[in-house]
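Pinned message: reference record for Nitrogen regulatory protein P-II
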Amino acid sequence: MEVLIFVLNDPRDLEEIMVEFTNIGISGSTIIDTVGMANILSSCEDASMFSSLQLLLNKGRSSNKTVFTVLKEERIEQALEIINKVTGGLNGPGNGIAFTIPVNRVFGGSFQQK
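Predicted structure (tokens):
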């Protein structure tokens, strides 16, 4: 199993992603509000050109949604396809980032181990 972690820069995409996850049988995610480094730096007096550019790419949004989903390895590609379809692709500027981390053991939830 792996935990898929993705930062969604446009929270308006979240509901559609969650509905699509449910449609393919992914039934649990944890979602938290997060703020990126560029957003924090843009409020500093010494804000660099980089942080100003990041704010433009993020279209003025001040927060992101970070989603944690524990999945069996064979479901990761399906989840990434949905995320890319809804966001227009994570490789696009300012759309977000996704990565996985191996999970050795799970306690509770739908993956309860015996």
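Pinned by admin. Summary line: Strands lie at 2-8, 30-34, 64-71, 96-102.
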